[in-house]
Amino acid sequence: MNVIETERLTKRFGDFVAVDRLDFQVARGEIFGFLGANGAGKTTAMRMLCGLSVPTSGTARVAGFDIGRQTESVKKSIGYMSQKFSLYDDLTVAENFRLFGGIYGVPSREIPSRTDEMLELLDFRSEKNTFVKSLPLGWKQKLSFSIAIFHRPGVVFLDEPTGGVDPVSRRRFWELIYEASDRGITVFATTHYMDEAEYCHRASIMVDGRIEALDTPARLKQAHGAASMDEVFRNLARKATRRAD
Amino acid sequence: MILRYLLEKEFKQIFRNRFLPRIIFAFPCVALLVFPLAANFEVRDIRLCLVDHDRSHASSRLVRKIAASGYFKLSRQAPDHRSALSSVESDESDMVLQIPPGFGRDLVGTGTSRVTISANSVDGVKGGIGSAYLSGVVAGFADEIRQEIHPEPAGAGPGRIETVPRLRFNPHLRYESMMVPALMVMLLTMICGFLPALNIVSEKEKGTIEQINVTPVGKSTFILSKLLPYWLIGLLVMSIGLVIARLVYGLVPLGSLGTIYLFACLYILAISGFGLAISNHSNTMQQAMFVMFFFVMVFNLMSGLFTPVSSMPEWAQATTRINPLSYFIEAMRCVYLKGSGFRDLQPQFLALCACALVMNGWAVLSYRKTT
Amino acid sequence: MERFLSFAKKELLHILRDKRTMLLLLGMPIAQIVLFGFAISTEVGNTKVAILDLARDEASRRIERDLDASRYFEVVAHLEDAAEVEPLFRRGKASLVVVFQDGFRESLLRDGSAEIQLIADATDPNTATVFLQYATSVATAYARENQPPAAAPVGIVPQVRLLYNPQLKGAYNFVPGVLGMMMLLVCAMMTSISIVRERETGTMEVLLVSPVRPIFVILAKMAPYFLLSCVNLATVLLVSVFVLDVPVAGSLPALVLVSFVYILLALALGLLISTIAATQVAAMLVSGMAFMLPVILLSGMMFPVESMPAALQWISNAIPARWYIAAVKDVMIKGLGFQAVAKELAILSGMTVFFVAVALKNFKTRLE
To answer: Which domains does chain A have, with CATH numbers?
Structure first.
């Protein structure tokens, strides 16, 4: 069963076609890597799928809801972690959980126990009452992720979740992603790091607003006769005419 | 239910800020303690420069009479017009009284004489009133002389009309009783206008709004969560104002406190909604601040707060009809000083309701969860 | 120097790129000066009058007509009964009720004097005092007209000359005030926000680690705002002269010089705020909101400084706008030159130096 289905999904800004007729499906429980160079249109596509941006043409269904007509229903069933850290840094860790849990309709008596559970998972208990602004970046990202899945959504969208952190932290972050996937949450993630692409069940590579390749990492490498996803990516990205800013 | 969590967050954010709670409480207190006495148009102690070319008995009698009137203070005796004028230029004097040579002789001989009054009229009101006062004193002096020369039985002069003023609501012409309500209104406008105007746009700048936009929070719920904190803060500011007015200035509203709070509730809703709408339309806090600054100035200065609405040109008077502040200040003064009740102020009440509805409707509609 | 210029240029481009903000910064002062210049005057006009005419004779009707014809009054209601007065006031429908007692004209003719009662809404004492005066003069004018020529014309004819503003235009007083208020607040807001914002977003650090000395970084940030403020000054002055008919009667160079100093002062004040305020919100609320009240109320823009209680006059000395407004009135309206504004120039320069010094001291301690 597909959790995400797009049909000729397109976004234009004036003359500029940021996202050009995307057609793809993501199955339940999959970890889907959404790759592409800067400016290839990844974030724009993802924002449309999350209901943050309205498509110029084409449609998509997320968790069974139409992103254009049933935006609010889509929002109820997804989690989202934006590229820029966007939790409230003048609230504590627990207060952020409480706020977003409450917004997503997690019953108020369940919030404390779920918070503890999450903190346990993150190995984070000591920071329960720390103000978010004083956390290091790697921890902030883990926190963002756990808030995105706190209400147990069907799909979680991660926009460059590991930007700017060290390899050890990235590795740990991906362990969290696997755990979420094991619990049946579909993960849709953009990333710059090609080693991370290897962790995905399937990956797509976007060039100039279009998907140029989509398959499992193993098959992609085979098709391009490449040893790593990095090489596959370089092969495809070379074709880009659009300049990243 | 979502509202509860959002409100919790707003209050935590406001009261954890190192700066906001201080300005919310300190600013109204300081303002109400310092500024009410500033508003005074009363023209007194006009500095008069005298050019007496006559130096007669009559001229010195006139000068004594002017000094005794209480409005004037002799700042300088100048030998000629030119040096008198430079005394006005250097802001040493406000007016010049020039008594020509032969003033006393003419007055007694021919019965008429003349003086020249020159008034600094950069401030038109002050210049006008000052010269009217001085002309009045001079005319009184002329009457005195006439009585001496041709004594008439009292009451024989035909057709004198006497006006008997009765000053209602503020018989001692205390300026504080005009200013304190005006300042309360200004403070509410600023605090409940600027803070919401900066609020949403600051979430935009920080990026936190994106995390909210991707959730199923309803637009009106979100706006309401932004509105309610300022509503309470505004009522608190209002209460501080009422207490200071009572304790420091001895001002107690003649009408009911309930009416005052009712109008304050509506007004805060209107102005905060307006602030939120501006915040929604702005990309940066700087833009929001400038736009709000513009409107706060316009609302304040063109509402009858300091200058009467009736003295504005037609088109400007028309703008007061969509200015929520003008309804609120009218209601405040009416309740405070005239004891007006809710029934007297129904038009203002309805107008403020309309403002609150329009502004908040606009705030909800202009909040976009998608781009 | 070259570095400084390239920095300043970068800043300027940065400002120019944000079209919306630019439009606001340049458009807002013009809109304000036009609005306030035309709309606001401390003059009292068109006061709403209700008439309670118990006399209903020729004299009372005549005075009523005179009142209505005068530009100071507008008769809005005729009352039948004294009981109607109170509700009228309570609803704010009229500010003055003129009462003619029964037999007004008769007593005027028979006894040679008659009374008119003027019931004024004195909630606003300024306005009430003034319109009472006007109403009295309308009544006495009627009386004088109907007086037979006096037996012996003893009188002093006062020749009144209203210096600098013979038509008693409100704008002559108000435009310098608005100018002083606006330049100060707008400049201070612009600079304080932009510096704090760089600190908040972290770009300030990038600049500070560059080989340029911090003071130059700051100056480079301020230079474009100085330029922008000069543009604002120019447009606002042009609007004042050509749209509002407020002349520059005195020396233009003196006006420009004192304005430059004032702009520098405002920028320095913004800088000072930015060294104290931790966040953009704080910077904006201090420069835009907390300063707004003292500048409007104590600078002489709204209320004459001389009429204030001594303590407030003393405080008003610390408000830069007070000195600038005084200087602008001297030059623009009174038509004076450099000499007349020397004192204001000195005070404003002194304040500027003071603000810069304190700001730099704060700035250094912040960096260390």
So the answer is: 2-237 (3.40.50.300)
Written as six digits, the tokens of B90 are 């250097």
Higher pLDDT pick, C241 / C143? C241
**Is the distance from CB of A197 to CB of A191 less than 8 angstroms?**
yes
**Domain locations in chain C as residue ranges:** 2-40+168-367, 47-145
A45 reaches B (C-beta below 8 A): no
Q: What is the CATH number of domain C47-145?
A: 3.40.1710.10
* Residue of A46, A80, A99 to mutate, interface with B, max B Cβ within 10 Å: A99
pLDDT given for residue C217 in this prediction: 76
Residue numbers of the domain that contains B113: 46-149
Judging contact as 3 or more Cβ pairs under 8 Å, the answer for A and C is no
Bridge partners of C74? C48
Across C132-140, average pLDDT = 86
Please name the residue ranges forming H helices in B282-345. Answer: 285-301, 314-320, 324-333
Structure tokens at C101: 């007692």
The beta-strand segments (E) located in B150-298 are 160-168
Q: Which tens digits make up the pLDDT trace of A181-192?
A: 999 999 999 988
B207 and B350 fall within a common domain? yes
Q: Does any domain span residue B160?
A: no
Q: Which chains touch C (3 or more CB pairs under 8 A)?
A: B
The strand pairing partners of B164, in sequence order, are C117
Q: How far is C324 from chain B (nearest CA, A)?
A: 14
> Global pTM?
0.88
Structure-block tokens of residue C49: 């009058």
Which chain C residue is nearest to residue B117, measuring alpha carbons?
A: C160
Say yes or no: B307 and B279 in one domain: yes
> Which residues on chain B place their C-beta less than 8 Å from a C-beta of chain A?
1-2, 4-6, 8-9, 12-13, 16-17, 206-218, 369-371
Contact C123 B345 (CB under 8 A): no
**Minimal C-alpha gap between C232 and chain B (Å):** 14
Report how many domains make up chain B.
2
Q: Is the ipTM value over 0.95, yes or no?
A: no
CATH of the domain at B51: 3.40.1710.10
